[in-house]
Amino acid sequence: MKITFSLLAAGLLALALPAAVLAQDIQHPVLPLYAGSVPDSKPSQVQETSTTEGNRITVANVVQPTLTVYLPAPNQATGTAVIICPGGGYARLAMGHEGYDVAKRLNEMGVAAFVLKYRLPNTRSQPDPSIAPLLDAQQALRLVRAQASQYHINPERIGIMGFSAGGHLAATAATHFARPVGSNPGPESVRPAFAVLLYPVISFSDSLMHKGSRDNLLGATASAAQIREYSNELQVTSQTPPVFLVHAEDDTVVPVGNSLAFYQALARHKVPAEMHLYPKGGHGFGMNNSTTQDQWIERLREWLAANGWLTK
């Protein structure tokens, strides 16, 4: 792989890198999410697997969650950051077209991006599989906020983005921040400044759910209380951060009703929200909905700019 990088940018990055870095790629270091033991984990024979087909990089059986860092050029940096949660039905992670590719595009806007490789629910390696993904998303928010100065990020301008089931995780982070999960959550805020949700799983209700996501996270015999807790349209409050939504109306995997229900809940609580619906596009299109010339990533750039998040 050929890497071209200005001496100035390389120097700034070298100063910014924390001591614990899992990969020595000066462009995109990989950070362990936890400095010590991973909470809600237990010894197991589970081993991470990865497959690559073109830009489609898929990871499963995550045991050690990480953040891959994508920083904009120093002269373009706005101080805003986004944590990206790839989708995959809580069974796998689409790290390429719903992770790394998006991070590169955000960098072009001057936005720092952190691709989250979060743990997927697994009874073999986790005492409580239902909280493992949210533990990791909340820890990602803590970690980026704690290291904001090293990355030249405004700690009040850290958002979260998610695709499909990653959208459910991002929406959960945007609605469950007042009661962080885990036995020792710590005092740091885990509220994101904003949420960007692409064809997201929102509801676990029978009428709207993506069954695979619900069963993988909560099990096939989830209680009514669990289903309600993780139906994020029911968890919106006036404190929920602003939200940007994208969905295709012909999505047969995650019904568009998920985004509609979330938007309606946001409107009821007077939470600023913008939603873009496309007649076609199906599910899992990443940044490129080939059925339209409109690019949702450009609409996102305009939304970020309108809210002041692209102002240096």
UniProtKB/TrEMBL annotation:
Pfam families: BD-FAE. PANTHER family: AB HYDROLASE SUPERFAMILY PROTEIN C4A8.06C, PEPTIDASE S9 PROLYL OLIGOPEPTIDASE CATALYTIC DOMAIN-CONTAINING PROTEIN. SUPFAM superfamilies: alpha/beta-Hydrolases. Residues 67-266 form the BD-FAE-like domain. The keyword Ribonucleoprotein does not apply. This is Alpha/beta hydrolase. The keyword Hydrolase applies. InterPro entries: AB_hydrolase_fold, BD-FAE-like_dom, GDXG_lipolytic_enzyme. The lineage of its organism: Bacteria, Pseudomonadati, Bacteroidota, Cytophagia, Cytophagales. Residues 1-23 form the signal peptide. One of its GO terms (molecular function) is hydrolase activity. Keywords: Hydrolase, Signal. It comes from Hymenobacter polaris.
